[in-house]
């Protein structure tokens, strides 16, 4: 069977998302989507000794919760696709090591949730797994420790900086079932437009989202109005504006039905998060906690979710490198 | 179509490896497999300013070379699966950013080469790509900088320590073609037996290789003699001995036809590499540079390649954590 519809886009024949769960931190629990999430942590630690252990626990509990909701256990899952922002993806490895599920580690920076769903859907649709999970997480404190400064330092943030979401999301995919069908996937190419400012991730990632969206519309020969809602992962205010403008120059107007998860999860002004939210857990928790449930209720019937990732590291920044970025897209429809 | 043969093992119907290439460093060019590799670097830098940039260049050139050999260009490749040991997998992201190939980033530590072939084979077999590439790399100097001490420090190495291979491998997969067929894949589970010594990766990873091999033999109902050769990625002398012993306790004897790539690439004693070689580039370069060409010449007809990875990070070690590990297996046969 040939499922290729274009260079980047494939069709998925019959795979659905049968469950999802999201766990977020305190700050996310004070934002406009607070009521969407399954668990809001009481503090940054959640009874763990280090923030990294907390992040791992969030991944593990998100997986378990997404399974419990539909009466399944980890034994029912054939493959798990997971990754996160931490060096060597330890959020995933340590979080999921006790689950006894065959594991494929992935790294797509903040595009990881959508990369995971993309690969899980292809593996399930191809008959290589009956049930697969896609999981990711981020934690404000682990990300600051690793990418920026010790929290105790209390450094000032630039206006273009984004706030890393403390959150984890888990989605369970199965062949032939689920109220929400995965219909198409568009794989992203690495895009690097020469942005060197590691504090302007939205600006750096917008061209990757533009590239993937353009390929998606062209290869499927559809317009943005095909969707009730198009979301990007974590472009924030600055990146989202750039994306809309870039597409407009090509005569593609997404503005009537476009939102960025990085602008949805916080009250940007009141919560003082500058350009918005970022992190694997941003689209991870918004998709798994807010958007997929809305689709199950048929309040959204056609959704295009675009995960956006900045593939830099502190080492590459120190070496004067620019920021390579990527965006992966999954097209979701409620089952008729 | 259902391709599941067991919890961890699937069959691949008709995908072959149509080309491969390997690039290695100076030290690997002085080892017993020197003549196998396509390019041996003249020094650690290869005209780049930093070792990280060198590692990226190795990945990029390995991909190009594996394509040039069969008259293809990057335009012919639908998907590329790649990752490496560096924080945020910058070897892959920066190495492959100019290739314009839809990219899925993966992280399996030193199991990355086999994880990449596993996912590429499933995506191609499922009809989601015509041609896919699996790529990885490691570099002694980037790994030391990141995981251990500055090279200038000249630290002593423990007897159980392994030497990170400077090397990159690229394999090109296509449906219905290629002298070497991918016949089965066994996905690994994360295994953590409580080893805390970050200088004994072989010892930590052996139980993961044991777990995956046991599942592979059981789910396919075959014995080790099914293969002309079984190789593991980088268990080194210590890990390889433990693996043989663990399987023997279950009545499975791999010793007649088993080798570890970490014991093959160097003259262990003369080259002073203590317990052997390690790194994504170990099985990456040995498989793509040495073993796949031997299969094309039909000197090996049935090969089981088991990539082994230690999913720790310096942060997890500092936090007193143990070492979670994983092993992925691909079964390869020459086309009749």
Assign the CATH class of the largest domain in chain A. Answer: Alpha Beta
Span between termini of chain A:
24 Å
Return the structural class of chain A: alpha/beta
Largest sheet of chain A: 11 strands, mixed
- Tell me the radius of gyration of chain A: 18 Å
Largest inter-chain interface?
A: A-B, 64 and 64 residues
So what's the oligomer here? Answer: homodimer
Number of strands of chain A: 13
Task: Lay out the secondary structure.
The structure is a homodimer of 336-residue chains.
Chain A: E1 9-24, E2 39-40, H1 51-68, E3 79-84, H2 90-96, E4 103-105, H3 112-125, E5 131-138, H4 140-147, E6 163-164, E7 167-175, E8 180-186, H5 201-220, E9 229-232, H6 236-249, E10 258-260, H7 261-264, E11 277-278, H8 280-296, E12 302-310, H9 314-318, E13 325-334
Parallel strand pairs in A: 1-2, 3-4, 3-5, 6-11, 9-10, 9-12
Antiparallel strand pairs in A: 1-7, 1-8, 5-7, 8-13, 12-13
Characterize this entry briefly:
The first copy, chain A, is of the alpha/beta class and 336 residues long.
Structural commentary:
Two copies of one chain form a homodimer. Chain A is of the alpha/beta class. Chain A has two domains: 9-175, Peroxisomal Thiolase, Chain A, domain 1 (3-Layer(aba) Sandwich); 181-334, Peroxisomal Thiolase, Chain A, domain 1, CATH 3.40.47.40. In chain A, 32% of the residues lie in helices and 24% in strands. Chain A contains nine helices and 13 strands. Chain A has helices at residues 51-68, 90-96, 112-125, 140-147, 201-220, 236-249, 261-264, 280-296, 314-318, and strands spanning 9-24, 39-40, 79-84, 103-105, 131-138, 163-164, 167-175, 180-186, 229-232, 258-260, 277-278, 302-310, 325-334. In chain A, strands 1, 2, 3, 4, 5, 7, 8, 9, 10, 12 and 13 form an eleven-stranded mixed β-sheet that branches. A two-stranded parallel sheet of chain A has the order 6-11. The longest helix of chain A is centred in the middle third of the chain and has 20 residues, at 201-220. Chain A is globular. The two termini of chain A are 24 Å apart. The mean pLDDT of chain A is 97. Chains A and B meet through helix 2, strand 4, helix 3 and helix 9 of A and helix 2, strand 4, helix 3 and helix 9 of B.
